[in-house]
Amino acid sequence: MADDLVFYTNPMSRGRIARWMLEEVGQPYRTEIVQYDSMKSAQYRSINPMGKVPAIVHRGTVVTECAAICAYLADAFPQANLAPPAADPRRGPYYRWMFFAAGPLESAVTNKALGFQVPADREAMAGYGNFEATMDALEYAVKQNEYICGSQFTAADVYVGSHVGWGLMFGSIDKRPAFVDYAQRLQARPAAQRAREIDDAQLPKKAG
């Protein structure tokens, strides 16, 4: 039932990552669009105290943060085959690179966008060291195989791939061939295309 899985999002947000994951999972879900002027309301903050999207509620369980949503959905719906089994050695890179993207990668890209550069003598204090080292690590992750976990597409690709795709679109990461090839491979997936179409259709209509 769609009401078993409720998705709170806004088409102009990181909710696009969770939408793609939901489309890969292939289970019924209900979407609640949350406008930015109501994200800090008491009603929505009862779901996410941070007052931001996305969030999902699955049979009463609330999950926020895109990486957590991707990991949760992969485990909640194993029939979608979006995560290696717990005893599989590929579970290591699956977790490794998903949380690399949630931590060092997002921090490095955000700081660069804000014009902040970690002083060379303080790089040991930053979780990502410096931007170039982070890009090198990301390139290593996506060029080893077709996907993060070898030949198997997983939730890690949804999350890492979303960061790469957005970074290339907005110029916040380098247009290295490995990044471009990886992004193109992922953006061609039917679920990714469906997710984009759904979210794009919900964008505010331009006047004129």
Q: Explain this structure to me?
A:
The chain is of the alpha+beta class. 49% of the residues lie in helices and 8% in strands. The protein is built from eight helices and four strands. It has helices spanning 15-25, 42-45, 66-76, 91-113, 131-143, 155-170, 177-187, 190-201; strands spanning 5-9, 30-33, 55-58, 61-64. It has a four-stranded mixed beta sheet, with helices on one face. Helix 1 links the parallel strand 1 (5-9) and strand 2 (30-33). Helix 3 (66-76) packs antiparallel against helix 6. The termini are far apart. The relative contact order is 0.14. The model has no long low-confidence stretch (mean pLDDT 95).
Write the layout of secondary structure elements.
Blueprint: E1 5-9, H1 15-25, E2 30-33, H2 42-45, E3 55-58, E4 61-64, H3 66-76, H4 91-113, H5 131-143, H6 155-170, H7 177-187, H8 190-201
Parallel strand pairs: 1-2
Antiparallel strand pairs: 1-3, 3-4
Helix pairs in contact: 1-3, 1-8, 3-6, 4-5, 4-6, 6-7
